[in-house]
Amino acid sequence: MKILVINCGSSSLKYQAIDMNTKNPIAKGLVERIGLQGSVLTHTTASGKKEVMKTSIPNHSVAIELVLKALVSPEYGALKDLGEIAAVGHRVVHGGEKFANSVVINDDVMKALDECIELAPLHNPPNIAGIKACQAIMPNVPQVAVFDTAFHQSMKPDSYIYGLPYEFYQKYGIRKYGFHGTSHKYVSQRASVLLQKPLKDLKLISCHLGNGASISAIKGGKSMETSMGFTPLDGLLMGTRSGALDPAIVTYIMNKEKFNVDQMNDFLNTKCGALGVSGVSSDFRDIEVAASHGNFRAQLALDIFAHDVREYIGAYVAELGGVDAIIFTAGVGENSASTRASICANMEFFGIELDLEKNKVRGEEVDVSKANARCRVLVIPTNEELMIALDAQELTAK
């Protein structure tokens, strides 16, 4: 059984074709600059060979057509024909309160996705465009929606209701939703395997640390709390996002800088975070290099990030009533030994003790804690595409 996984951004499209017998990708790729000049599709075969195709890609429908042509290409394709695709799994950022699990897409689901656009205006429209394009080209192939928000629907009201008039939640759906759910779910399941303990018996804190970052408290395999909120802007300082702020700062800056609502929203999402503090870059690798050369602001950005993560870990240990393992995943979490070390420093009272030699790893699935530490520290590369494919496989088999 082969499943195609599609992840549409506003001007990009990531994809993987996965053989569910081996759980390995047989091809993957990235379409960039959709609707812009300089559009390009980079297709990678199972052997690692890359094919780069530069052509006009005006919309997501054309992007999907090119992806499917690449997959069945006699030169570098992975499929004999499109009939080998048993299902398509789509990453959908926001499902609101409508979806606590992945679903097979039908007309009612599409209507609900449209209704969630106002909650994720930058993300849901391209997700929907990708679904419609696949439906048009492969009308008889089941399409499955896998939501970033679904995993966090297990949170209780005292975790997700804000201190606003309750009718704002009832009228506008203003509440904490949380994101990166597919990643948090995947790494928590892998932690159960590594620790050789049932997931239902584990208290875990999952740190998805990348350009976008969030932390989740997971008890018995269910999300109890998470750092992102109504939008992915809340929580940790991120690459370009501010993270949590005193809300009065927003109106104060708008008044001082004469920003309108759209300008303020763009400012908080694209010009703040590690970029704003460091003045160097939104890429933590660049910031680490600058810090190593004595750049004070770069080091400050790294210190704030580590401080924020520690703060959430402490809060979530209290929320869970203890912790069995801390999980580091995503670009920074998987690859930056120095960031992991900074976060775990002086946390012995929680049983968190890092083995600095074991910690010298990048992108490997490994326990990097000291042998006798009460709380394990795990590095687990995330695999959201496989998680989406597994959900698509399960739902279409039913």
Automatic annotation (TrEMBL):
<feature type="binding site">
    <location>
        <begin position="283"/>
        <end position="285"/>
    </location>
    <ligand>
        <name>ATP</name>
    </ligand>
</feature>
<keyword id="KW-0460">Magnesium</keyword>
<dbReference type="GO" id="GO:0005524">
    <property type="term" value="F:ATP binding"/>
</dbReference>
<dbReference type="GO" id="GO:0005737">
    <property type="term" value="C:cytoplasm"/>
</dbReference>
<feature type="binding site">
    <location>
        <position position="7"/>
    </location>
    <ligand>
        <name>Mg(2+)</name>
    </ligand>
</feature>
<keyword id="KW-0963">Cytoplasm</keyword>
<dbReference type="InterPro" id="IPR023865">
    <property type="entry name" value="Aliphatic_acid_kinase_CS"/>
</dbReference>
<dbReference type="InterPro" id="IPR004372">
    <property type="entry name" value="Ac/propionate_kinase"/>
</dbReference>
<keyword id="KW-0479">Metal-binding</keyword>
<comment type="similarity">
    <text>Belongs to the acetokinase family.</text>
</comment>
<feature type="active site" description="Proton donor/acceptor">
    <location>
        <position position="148"/>
    </location>
</feature>
<comment type="subunit">
    <text>Homodimer.</text>
</comment>
<keyword id="KW-0808">Transferase</keyword>
<feature type="site" description="Transition state stabilizer">
    <location>
        <position position="180"/>
    </location>
</feature>
<keyword id="KW-0418">Kinase</keyword>
<comment type="pathway">
    <text>Metabolic intermediate biosynthesis; acetyl-CoA biosynthesis; acetyl-CoA from acetate: step 1/2.</text>
</comment>
<dbReference type="GO" id="GO:0000287">
    <property type="term" value="F:magnesium ion binding"/>
</dbReference>
<dbReference type="InterPro" id="IPR000890">
    <property type="entry name" value="Aliphatic_acid_kin_short-chain"/>
</dbReference>
<feature type="site" description="Transition state stabilizer">
    <location>
        <position position="241"/>
    </location>
</feature>
<keyword id="KW-0547">Nucleotide-binding</keyword>
<feature type="binding site">
    <location>
        <position position="384"/>
    </location>
    <ligand>
        <name>Mg(2+)</name>
    </ligand>
</feature>
<feature type="binding site">
    <location>
        <position position="14"/>
    </location>
    <ligand>
        <name>ATP</name>
    </ligand>
</feature>
<feature type="binding site">
    <location>
        <position position="91"/>
    </location>
    <ligand>
        <name>substrate</name>
    </ligand>
</feature>
<dbReference type="GO" id="GO:0008776">
    <property type="term" value="F:acetate kinase activity"/>
</dbReference>
<dbReference type="GO" id="GO:0006085">
    <property type="term" value="P:acetyl-CoA biosynthetic process"/>
</dbReference>
<protein>
    <recommendedName>
        <fullName>Acetate kinase</fullName>
        <ecNumber>2.7.2.1</ecNumber>
    </recommendedName>
</protein>
<feature type="binding site">
    <location>
        <begin position="331"/>
        <end position="335"/>
    </location>
    <ligand>
        <name>ATP</name>
    </ligand>
</feature>
<dbReference type="InterPro" id="IPR043129">
    <property type="entry name" value="ATPase_NBD"/>
</dbReference>
<comment type="function">
    <text>Catalyzes the formation of acetyl phosphate from acetate and ATP. Can also catalyze the reverse reaction.</text>
</comment>
<feature type="binding site">
    <location>
        <begin position="208"/>
        <end position="212"/>
    </location>
    <ligand>
        <name>ATP</name>
    </ligand>
</feature>
<keyword id="KW-0067">ATP-binding</keyword>
<dbReference type="GO" id="GO:0006083">
    <property type="term" value="P:acetate metabolic process"/>
</dbReference>
<dbReference type="Pfam" id="PF00871">
    <property type="entry name" value="Acetate_kinase"/>
</dbReference>
